[in-house]
Write a structure and sequence with these properties.
The protein is mainly alpha-helical and 484 residues long. It has one domain. It has 19 helices and two strands. The protein has helices at residues 12-16, 25-35, 50-53, 66-77, 80-87, 91-96, 108-136, 149-156, 169-210, 214-232, 243-253, 263-270, 280-286, 288-294, 304-322, 332-338, 342-345, 361-378, 383-469, and strands spanning 277-278, 330-331. 24% of the residues are buried. Residues 399-431, 447-464 have a biased composition (Low complexity). Residues 258-293, 310-345 form the EF-hand domain. The chain crosses the membrane at residues 12-33. It comes from Helobdella robusta.
C-alpha cells in the first residue's frame, strides 16, 4: 500500500467504497449474518429475486490478512452456542473486542479448526517475513538479519504470535481491533490522499504556466477560470438523505409515484442483498443521480476523482446523521426514524467540493517545497522531463478512474436491471392474479349456468312424471232427454 511521492494511490476507489462499512468488518458480518436482520415482513408488492437474496459474493477490503479474518468469521458463525451469545451483543461489545470472552462457549471441534487456521496463518506470515527481509537485504546470503520490531507488529498484529499453537480469546480481540483500526485508517488516508491529489493538480497547472509567454499564459488563465465557472453551473444538489433527494430516487430510479413515497418500501427496494441493512455500497448507489448533476465524465471541466470524493463525503454525512448506534450500517428502524425528523423535510442545498477549498496556501507551499527537495535530491531527470512524467502520471490516473467509474456505472445498471426485473415480476404477478380472477369468474358463471340448466331439467322431468302417472278422465256425453 505504499504510495508514490505525489501520485494518487491505486487503492482508492474499490476500497474506499467499503470504508466504515467495515469499521468493524466482524461486526457487520456477525450482525447481518449471525444475529440476522430484524424480523419483519416486507410490504406487499416488494419482490426479491432469489439469486439476489442468496448472493454471497464479497467485496475485497484490501487487508493483507483478509482471508484469515474471513475464515475465522465463517467458523465462528457455524457454532450455535456462539451465535446465541451474539444475539445479546451490541456494537460496542463487538468493536471493543469484549465479545471475544464468549469464545469459551465455542464447541471443541470448531476450536480445533480455529487452532489449525491460526497455525497455517503463522506459517504464511513467517514465509512472507523471510521474503521481505531477503528483499531488503539481497546480499546477506543465508544469514538474514533480524526484522525490525515495527515490521513484526505490522505483519503479526492481528493475532497473538506469542502463542503459536492455539486460537484463544486474545487472538480474537487482536483480530477485531486490528481490523477496526486498519479500515478506519483507510478512510483517513483517502481524505489525505485526495488533498495531495488536489495540490498536485494545482502544482502541475502552475508549472505549466511558468514556461508560457505572457499572452498565452493569460489566455490559459482565462480558460481555466471559464472551466471552473462552467463546472459550478449545475442544477441544485439535494442534501443527501433528505426527503427530496430520496423522492427523486423513488420517482426516477424506481419508477414509482412521487406522492406515494413510503420509507419502509424504499428501504426494502434498496437493500439489494436483503440482509436487513443499508451498507455503504447500497447508500452510495442512492447518490448517483445527485452526482450526475455535477460531474460528467465526458466534460473536460469535471474531474472524476472529485466525484468519488464527493460520493464518499455524502456517504459519511448520511452515516453520521442516520447511523444512531455507529455500527456502520443503517437498519430499517434507523432509516424510518430519520424520515420522521424535522430536518428530513428541509430541502437545503448540498455544498459540493467547489464550495470549499481543499488546501491552504501554506499547505500547497509546503507540498511544493517537499516536492522540489526530492527532485533536487534525486537529480536524475531534468525538470521538464519530470513535469512531463507527472502529467502522464496524472493522465493515467484520470483514465484509471474513468475505468472505475464505468465499473460503477455497470453496477448501477445491474441494479436498475434488477429493479426492473422486480417490477416485471410484480406486474407478472398482478397479471397472473387478474387472469386467475377472470378464470375463476368464468368458471363460476359456467357452474351457475350448469346449475340453472340442471334445475330446468329437473323441473321438466318432474312435469313429465306428473303427466305420465296422472289418470286420464274420459269425457262424459249428455244423453238425450227422455231416453231411459
Amino acid at each position: 500500500m505504499d504510495r508514490p511521492a505525489i501520485s494518487f494511490p491505486s487503492l482508492l476507489y474499490k476500497k474506499s467504497v467499503l470504508i466504515f462499512f467495515a469499521v468493524a468488518f466482524l461486526f457487520a458480518a456477525w450482525v447481518t449474518v449471525v444475529v440476522g436482520p430484524p424480523v419483519s415482513e416486507k410490504p406487499a408488492g416488494v419482490v426479491v429475486d432469489d439469486d439476489e437474496a442468496n448472493s454471497t459474493e464479497e467485496e475485497s477490503l484490501g487487508l493483507e490478512y483478509e482471508r484469515y479474518m474471513r475464515e475465522v468469521v465463517k467458523l465462528l458463525e457455524s457454532d450455535e452456542e456462539f451465535r446465541k451469545k451474539l444475539e445479546s451483543a451490541n456494537s460496542s461489545d463487538i468493536k471493543s473486542g469484549a465479545i471475544a470472552q464468549h469464545l469459551n462457549f465455542v464447541s471443541k471441534s470448531i476450536r480445533s479448526k480455529l487452532d489449525e487456521l491460526k497455525r497455517n496463518e503463522l506459517e504464511r506470515l513467517r514465509t512472507v517475513l523471510r521474503l521481505k527481509v531477503r528483499q531488503a537485504h539481497p546480499d546477506s546470503g543465508d544469514r538474514l538479519p533480524p526484522p525490525a520490531l515495527h515490521e513484526l507488529e505490522k505483519l503479526f498484529g492481528h493475532l497473538d504470535s506469542s502463542n503459536q499453537h492455539s486460537f484463544e480469546t486474545k487472538d480474537l480481540v487482536k483480530l477485531i481491533k486490528r481490523t477496526t483500526d486498519d479500515l478506519e485508517d483507510i478512510d483517513r488516508r483517502r481524505r489525505e490522499d485526495f488533498k495531495r491529489y488536489e495540490m498536485e493538480k494545482e502544482h502541475l497547472r502552475r508549472e505549466e504556466m511558468k514556461g508560457l509567454p505572457t499572452e498565452e499564459r493569460e489566455k490559459k488563465e482565462k480558460e481555466h477560470e471559464e472551466m471552473e465557472k462552467k463546472h459550478r453551473e449545475h442544477p441544485k444538489v439535494h442534501h443527501p438523505g433528505n426527503e427530496e433527494q430520496l423522492k427523486d430516487v423513488w420517482e426516477e430510479g424506481d419508477g414509482l409515484e412521487r406522492d406515494e413515497f413510503n420509507p419502509r418500501t424504499f428501504f426494502y427496494l434498496h437493500d439489494t442483498n436483503s440482509d436487513g441493512f443499508l451498507d455503504p455500497v447500497e447508500l452510495e448507489a442512492l447518490f448517483q443521480k445527485e452526482l450526475d448533476k455535477v460531474y460528467n465524465e465526458n466534460a473536460t471541466e469535471d474531474d472524476m476523482m472529485e466525484r468519488y470524493e464527493e460520493m464518499n463525503r455524502m456517504r459519511e454525512h448520511v452515516m453520521k446523521e442516520i447511523d444512531a448506534n455507529r455500527d456502520s450500517v443503517i437498519s430499517l428502524e434507523e432509516f424510518v426514524n430519520s424520515t420522521q425528523r424535522e430536518e428530513f423535510k428541509k430541502d437545503e442545498e448540498w455544498d459540493t467540493l467547489e464550495d470549499e477549498r481543499q488546501f491552504t496556501d501554506e499547505e500547497l507551499a509546503a507540498f511544493e517545497k517537499d516536492l522540489n527537495e526530492r527532485q533536487h535530491a534525486s537529480d536524475v531527470t531534468p525538470p521538464t522531463t519530470t513535469l512531463s512524467m507527472q502529467q502522464q502520471q496524472h493522465d493515467d490516473q484520470q483514465q484509471q478512474h474513468v475505468d472505475q467509474q464505468q465499473h460503477v456505472d455497470q453496477q448501477q445498471q445491474q441494479h436498475v436491471d434488477q429493479q426492473q426485473q422486480h417490477v416485471d415480476q410484480q406486474q407478472q404477478h398482478v397479471d397472473q392474479q387478474q387472469h386467475d380472477d377472470q378464470q375463476q369468474q368464468h368458471d363460476d358463471q359456467q357452474q351457475q349456468h350448469v346449475d340453472q340448466q340442471q334445475h330446468v331439467d329437473q323441473q321438466q322431468q318432474q312435469q313429465d312424471q306428473r303427466l305420465h302417472f296422472e289418470p286420464q278422465q274420459q269425457p262424459q256425453h249428455d244423453q238425450p232427454k227422455g231416453v231411459i
